[in-house]
Amino acid sequence: MAAVETEQTVRAQAKFVRSSARKARLVTDLIRGRSVPEARTILAFSDRAVARDVERVLHSAVSNAESRPDLLWRGDELVVATAFADEGPTLKRHRARARGRVGRIMKRTCHITVELSPREAQVPAAAGAASETGAAQARTARVEEPALETTEAQADDQTGSTEPEVADSSPEPQAQDREEQ
Q1: Are 32 and 93 in contact (CB under 8 A)?
Q2: pTM assigned to the model
Q3: Does residue 168 lie in a domain region?
Q4: Is the pLDDT at 165 greater than 90, yes or no?
């Protein structure tokens, strides 16, 4: 497993894992964006065989983060920033079939990568605002659209009268008689 670190993320990678990238992506999608303890729990209870390999890469990334003296990060306070599985080389094997033919066997491999970063509360506000992507900005812009304001004239048109309605504070006497019976 190779380890590469950047300023705000710590990364671990396992290469040539004997599983297809498609199967590994199903597991890495489960832990992306989760805290390290939560990701460990998910991987521990996963039925997929590749979950053990992903768990080893996650453990390696946490060890890389804790071993760097300049970061001072604790493993339980980290979040899985990215987790992905890329295709590796495919081993091609052959098996004899009927009538002198050959059946091809594809033994696929993948490269699993896990990147950890501190929680958003620990990242300085300036760094968090600079790292916001265009998709996230568009998402927040949609949420912050101003609500439609109605003017008094439009409200009067909707009710159909220009006089303010006065609520009658006393209930009708017939309604009281019906309630008593």
Answers
A1: no
A2: 0.63
A3: no
A4: no
